[in-house]
Amino acid sequence: MEFFTLSMLNGLSYGLLLFMLSSGLTLIFSLMGVLNFAHASFYMLGAYLGYTIAKGVGFWPALVLAPLAVGVLGALFERACLRRLHRHGHVPELLVTFGLSYVILEVVQLLWGRVALDFQPPAALRGPAFTLVATAGEGLQLLWGAAPAALCSAAGAVCSPFPATRGFMMLVALLMLLALWLLITRTRVGLVIQAALTHPEMAEALGHNVPRVFMGVFGAGAALAGLAGVIGGSTFVTEPAMAATVGSVIFVVVVVGGMGSLPGAFVASLLIGVLQTFAVAVDYSLGALLRSLGLEVGPAAAGNSLLRLTVSQVAPILPYLLLVLVLIFRPRGLLGTREG
Amino acid sequence: MRIATWVHQTAVGSLLLLAVGTVAAQKGETVKIAWIDPLSGLMAPVGQNQVRSFQFFAEKFNKDPRLNPAGVRFEIVPFDNKLSPSETVNALKSAVDQGVRYVTQGNGSSVAGAMIDAVAKHNERNPGKEVIYLNHSAVDPDFTNSRCSYWHFRFDADTSMKMEALTTFIKDLPDVKKVYLLNQNYSHGQQVARYAKENLAKKRPDVQVVGEDFHPLAQVRDFAPYIAKIKASGADSVITGNWGSDLSLLMKAANESGYAGRFFTYYTGVTGAPTALGRNFDGRVYQVAYHHYNMPGAMGQWQNEFRQKLNDDFYTGSVVHIYNILSQAMARAKSTEPLKVAAAMEGLKFNSFSGEVEMRKSDHQLQQPLFITVWQQADAKFPYSPENTGMTLAPVKELPAFVSSTPTSCQMKRP
């Protein structure tokens, strides 16, 4: 039970980080139709800028300033580059963001070096947010903050602290979801944005500056990635390969959830986070499955490395398997709507 | 009497002249060594530290004739292989095109395997232009057993040797009862797990292996699920061969999730891991290695100098072994020609920072003492603190070369 609770929390927190990462990408795609290949690079940029600003003025200002800076950079890129390519269709847009991801990688390495940075979370987030204490007789107990040492060292008691950085990550992701949803469905700005996408001429005729709306949306999407970067960078590692490693996963999230669907991205992130976390705990292999089905595995096949591969070994690649399955059986994604 | 002295002096003088004349064959020559390891990607910090180590000690050996009896000038030519076997083979090609005859590499046994094959092929096709591969850190035991090659020389201790030493140490720790094996899913990690199981079964049959896991190399961001699994298994100790970010992130997760067990590691002293451990884990992390941070003598001074000059820690001690053996062998062979140097390196005994070591002739595996160290507060006795953590790796046991030596099945073809 304790293991289940803890794994669930780990899975949800990882899933929510994925959502934080992919929400900006979804936003940009759903509103502008641009598949932004540089999205993970904005994430990395957020982490590096966050590190530098945090060194100067502290973590909390950096949490606000770094995403803003990334957002401004994103908006500038849209204004200077993407806008000119818009009328040429999707492929040039896609290619230019692809190129941008390489440029950002090189610039980051030039400015900050190739070595991982020591980006520490602030003092307030360093300890555990709460501790799950499993005692032999009383079952599961939840204590805020760190549990007293005497309780944990008692016989039969197991203490499992849950890091505050993870709790904070979950909180920010949920706030982000709420804010985005309210912005798009409940505000005038959201209405204008939606109108600008589906009927740009009409929106323009009504006096709305459509190109500026697009610039704002792109900037906002980049800022969301930047925010995820500050949080992800301080929780995990800040180094030049961080964009490449999350880049592929967030595309999986967006495709599995349904291109451009914010609720879809949310569901898919949680699904992938939880799936990957629980898969680590499963030691079953294909060979064991065959045996449990009553099929005898011969001595030659028993040594086969594919049959011996356990689920926990393939856990980190499961999202990609899911991607392939979704593309085969439900190409529009879990909550996506068919383009028409 | 006078004449006798005169004759004697002339004889000695001409002998000396003769000796100088022959030494001069390689004296002053530049020996280029291609350094082929990652300078980008997740493992870049380790590569960057190592290329600086090679350059730092090239300077030391070039300046000091006592260290460098051959009197050659070492020069490092770095290549970034991105931890990829195919990039490595390409880098080897361009190094050879530039006239480099010595190559060194060590990060990732998957890469080292490709290097061994590529060097062997090159030497077969280009007689007279042989290349020697100096393996500074890739520890797959196969390289000096079933896959051994005349052109490959290893200066680190291989996994089987380190596990031999580590389990000899664990034998005397009665409170190690349940062990979990967590490793990277490629040859190195799998061998750590295999030798751990074999050796524990022999030396401590009462120890239970309560879990065994492999994860992809440099892919996992979040080790919290693995730590949760380790805790649930009730393990009091973890044996891991993880290195680079895989070790740092594992330690970070272990610390955050409050895992209270011990860790037996191979690479705690390597970039990033000391910072990830920080002030936690006092007395709970052990490392087995052929070198440590609190070496006495010249090595201790060099380490401090390295820290002052480069603001980084020196941990790839095999760099010093490599320059030592090359210089000794070149002086002995009176040449820098790889064919002659390789022959001179075989079976060579020389003094290095850990005492007398030997390049075993049968498999080209350096036989050397190993050290077990423990992560603890730095103090007056063991002051060196990696990454300014205030902590150190203090030696708790030294195992002479014969203890950790393992047999070889190598049958190499000599030219």
TrEMBL record, chain A:
Top-rank taxon, per record: Bacteria
UniProt key word Transport: yes
GO cellular component: plasma membrane
One Pfam short name: BPD_transp_2
Keywords in alphabetical order: Amino-acid transport, Cell membrane, Membrane, Transmembrane, Transmembrane helix, Transport
Transmembrane segments: 12-38, 58-82, 94-112, 167-184, 213-235, 241-259, 266-286, 306-329
Record localization: Cell membrane
Cell membrane as UniProt keyword: yes
PANTHER family from the UniProt entry: ABC TRANSPORTER ATP-BINDING PROTEIN (PTHR11795:SF442), BRANCHED-CHAIN AMINO ACID TRANSPORT SYSTEM PERMEASE PROTEIN LIVH (PTHR11795)
Family: Belongs to the binding-protein-dependent transport system permease family. LivHM subfamily.
Protein name per the record: Putative amino acid transmembrane transmembrane protein
Organism name: Methylibium petroleiphilum (strain ATCC BAA-1232 / LMG 22953 / PM1)
TrEMBL record, chain B:
Family annotation (Pfam families): Peripla_BP_6
Keyword terms of this UniProt record: Signal
Protease among keywords: no
Leucine-binding protein domain: residues covered: 30-377
InterPro entries attached to this UniProt entry: BCAA_transport (IPR051010), Leu-bd (IPR028081), Peripla_BP_I (IPR028082)
Xref: Gene3D superfamilies: 3.40.50.2300
Signal sequence residues: 1-25
Origin: domain of life: Bacteria
Protein family per UniProt: Belongs to the leucine-binding protein family.
The protein, known as: Putative leu/ile/val-binding signal peptide protein
